[in-house]
Design goal:
Number of helices: 25
Shape: globular
Number of domains: 3
Strand content: under 5%
Radius of gyration: 24 Å
Number of strands: 3
C-alpha cells in the first residue's frame, strides 16, 4: 500500500499542463495516471474506499470555489486529451480515450449549471453521505480509527458549507419541489443521536475491539468519538435543521418539473444525455415508454388470466392487499431476501464462466433515511480495501414491501445484478479510474434490469404472483420513461405521474409516492434503466441470430461485463466485435 501512495504522490507532482511526451501512447497513459491521482486527491473518501491511504485523515472539500477549481482542472485535462491523436493509440486505449473524454466533457458542462448547488434530494443528500462514511472503509489498525476521527472532525465545517450553499441556492431559485420534501426534516433529525454511541458516525466503535488496538487505547478512542459526535457533529446537524426550518423550507417550489428552474430545459437535456449515453430526445423517450407500457401491460393481462383472475386489475388488487404477501417483522423480510439471494448464488455458474471473488452481505437500510427511500439498493464494496458489497433492504413500512417483489428485487440489486457487475468490474485489467471511478447509469442500471429478466431462466418466478411482480418491476421502469419525461418536458403534475404509475404497475402506494418523488427531485436518472436493458436485449438477440447454435449465453454475459461500465454505443461496438470473434473461432 505504501508503494501505491508513493506512486500517487509522484503522479500528482507532475503539473497538469506539463510537457507532452514523445509517444502519444506514453502521453495518454501519463494523462490517465494524473487524472486518477487528481480524482483521489479531490475525493479522500473515494481514495480510502479503493485502498489508497494517502488521504485517510482528510475529507472531501465542499465549496463552490472547489467545484470551480475541479471543473477548471477537468478542462485542463480535456485540452491535453484533445491534443493527443486518438488514431495513434491502440484499440484498447481508443476506448479509454473516448470514455475519459466523455467524463471530462460532462464534468466541465455540469459545473455551468446553477443546479450544482442543490445538494439534497430524495435519492440522496449530502448530510446522509457524511453520516454513512464509515460504512465504506476498513478498520483494522489504531491508525484507521485515528484517521477516521480526524476525518469526521471536518464534518461541522462541511455541514456549515452545506447550509451556506443551500441558502444561496434557495435565494437564486434552485430549490426542490415542496411535495418531495415532506420527510426531509426527519432525515436530518434521524442523524442526531442523543446517545452518541447510537450515532451512525459511531459505527466503527460499536463493534468488537481489533486485536491491533490495546484495551486502554480502545476506550480512549471510543471516548473521543462520543465526545466529538455529542459536542461537535450533533450541533452542526441541529444547526442545519434549524436553517432548513427557518429559511429553506419556505422557499421550496410548487412546480415539479426541472424545466421551471433557471436553465432548467438545458439542464434536463444535459441530464438525459448523461444518464442514457444516447442522443434521444425527451419526446422520443416518452413515445418509447408508451410502447413498452402497452407491451408489458398485455403480458400482465395474460398472466392474470392464466392465474384465474377476472382481470389484471383484480390480481394486482389482491396482491396489494392480502396480508399473506407481506412480512410481519423486519427480520422476516431480511430472511426472505437472504434466502432468495443464496438461491440465486447457487445458479450463477449457469450464467457466467467467471465469477467475482468479492462476496456481498445483506443488511437493513439506515433507519434515518429508510422511510422515504426506495425498496432496496446496492452498496458497492472494494477488494483493495477489503470491504464486501452489501444488499441493503428497506425494512420500514412492512405493509408496503410485498414478498412477491423479492425475486426481481434481489436479482437487480445483488446477483446477477449490481453486485455481479460492479465486483467484476473491480477485478478487470482496466485503468484504475475505470475500475473504481466510472459508472454509466445506462450500463449499470440497464444491466440490473436485464438481470431481473434473467430470473426467468433461473426459475425464480415460480408463482403467478412472483411473475406478475417481475412484470410490474419491468412496467415500473417502462413507466419511468413516460413519467420522467412527462414531468420534466411535458408539464405533468405529480398527481398525473402517480395516477399513471398506479394504473400500470403493481407497486404499493408508498412505493409509488417515493418513486415519483425521486423522479421529480432527480431528473433523468430513471430513464437509463429501460434504455440500457433494451440495448442489452437487442445485442443478445443479434448474437443469438448470428451465432445460431454456437451462441453461448455464459460467454455473451462475460463479454457484456468484460470491459466494465461503458456508454451504450461502446457496448454495441464491443458486442459486435465479440460476435465477429466468435464466428471466426467457430
Amino acid at each position: 500500500m505504501r508503494s501505491r501512495s508513493l506512486a500517487l504522490t509522484a503522479a500528482l507532482s507532475l503539473a497538469i499542463a506539463g510537457p507532452a511526451l514523445a509517444a502519444p501512447s506514453d502521453d495518454f497513459h501519463a494523462l490517465m495516471d494524473q487524472y486518477w491521482a487528481a480524482a483521489l486527491k479531490n475525493s479522500p473518501t473515494l481514495a480510502t474506499s479503493v485502498g489508497v491511504n494517502t488521504y485517510d485523515a482528510q475529507l472531501d472539500v465542499l465549496s463552490l470555489a472547489e467545484m470551480d477549481r475541479q471543473a477548471a482542472e477537468a478542462a485542463a485535462f480535456l485540452a491535453r486529451l484533445n491534443a493527443i491523436p486518438k488514431s495513434a493509440l491502440s484499440a484498447e486505449d481508443q476506448t479509454n480515450y473516448l470514455i475519459l473524454k466523455r467524463n471530462l466533457d460532462s464534468a466541465v458542462e455540469a459545473n455551468r449549471f446553477g443546479e450544482r448547488q442543490m445538494l439534497y434530494s430524495t435519492l440522496g443528500s449530502y448530510h446522509d453521505f457524511l453520516a454513512g462514511m464509515a460504512e465504506n472503509q476498513p478498520f483494522r489498525t489504531r491508525a484507521d480509527y485515528e484517521n477516521y476521527l480526524k476525518r469526521i472532525a471536518f464534518v461541522p465545517d462541511r455541514m456549515r458549507a452545506y447550509g451556506e450553499i443551500s441558502a444561496k441556492a434557495s435565494r437564486e431559485g434552485f430549490v426542490q419541489p415542496c411535495v418531495t420534501l415532506t420527510g426531509f426534516p426527519q432525515s436530518i433529525r434521524g442523524s442526531i443521536a442523543a446517545d452518541p454511541t447510537q450515532s451512525r458516525f459511531y459505527l466503527p466503535f460499536a463493534g468488537d475491539r481489533s486485536s491491533t488496538v490495546t484495551a486502554a487505547d480502545w476506550q480512549a478512542l471510543k471516548t473521543r468519538a462520543a465526545a466529538l459526535i455529542r459536542d461537535k457533529i450533533n450541533p452542526s446537524y441541529a444547526r442545519f435543521g434549524q436553517l432548513y426550518d427557518s429559511q429553506l423550507k419556505s422557499t421550496c417550489r410548487q412546480s415539479v418539473g426541472v424545466s421551471a428552474l433557471p436553465q432548467g430545459k438545458e439542464y434536463y437535456a444535459f441530464l438525459v444525455r448523461t444518464h442514457t449515453t444516447t442522443s434521444k430526445t425527451p419526446d422520443e423517450i416518452h413515445q418509447l415508454g408508451l410502447r413498452e407500457v402497452a407491451r408489458i401491460r398485455a403480458e400482465m393481462v395474460d398472466v392474470a388470466k392464466k392465474a384465474g383472475f377476472a382481470s389484471r386489475e383484480a390480481m394486482i388488487a389482491e396482491m396489494r392487499t392480502n396480508p399473506k404477501y407481506f412480512a410481519k417483522t423486519p427480520d422476516e423480510l431480511l430472511a426472505a431476501s437472504a434466502r432468495m439471494a443464496k438461491t440465486i448464488d447457487g445458479k450463477m455458474p449457469s450464467l457466467f464462466t467467471r465469477l467475482p471473488r468479492l462476496p456481498y452481505g445483506i443488511r437493513p437500510m439506515p433507519l434515518a433515511t429508510a422511510p422515504g427511500d426506495t425498496t432496496a439498493r446496492y452498496q458497492q464494496g472494494s477488494p483493495d480495501a477489503g470491504i464486501a458489497g452489501f444488499y441493503l433492504v428497506n425494512t420500514t413500512k412492512l405493509d408496503q414491501r410485498p414478498l412477491w417483489e423479492i425475486p426481481a428485487l434481489t436479482a437487480h440489486e445483488a446477483v446477477p445484478g449490481h453486485h455481479m457487475q460492479i465486483a467484476t468490474q473491480q477485478e478487470l485489467d482496466l485503468p484504475a479510474w475505470r475500475k473504481y471511478g466510472t459508472f454509466f447509469t445506462a450500463f449499470v442500471e440497464g444491466w440490473g434490469l436485464y438481470s431481473e429478466r434473467l430470473g426467468i431462466e433461473l426459475g425464480i418466478y415460480d408463482t403467478p404472483e412472483k411473475n406478475m411482480g417481475r412484470l410490474s418491476y419491468e412496467m415500473w421502469r417502462a413507466a419511468r420513461l413516460v413519467v420522467d419525461t412527462g414531468i420534466h418536458s411535458k408539464g405533468w403534475s405529480k398527481e398525473q405521474a402517480v395516477a399513471f404509475m398506479k394504473d400500470n404497475t403493481a407497486l404499493t402506494d408508498a412505493n409509488i409516492d417515493a418513486e415519483v418523488n425521486r423522479y421529480i427531485s432527480n431528473p433523468g436518472q430513471a430513464l437509463a434503466y429501460k434504455l440500457g436493458e433494451l440495448k442489452i436485449r437487442e445485442l443478445r438477440a443479434r448474437a443469438e441470430k448470428e451465432l445460431g447454435d454456437k451462441f453461448d449465453l455464459r460467454r455473451f454475459h462475460d463479454a457484456v461485463l468484460g470491459q466494465g461500465s461503458v456508454p451504450l454505443d461502446a457496448l454495441e461496438a464491443q458486442i459486435n466485435a465479440w460476435i465477429a470473434a466468435e464466428k471466426a473461432k467457430s
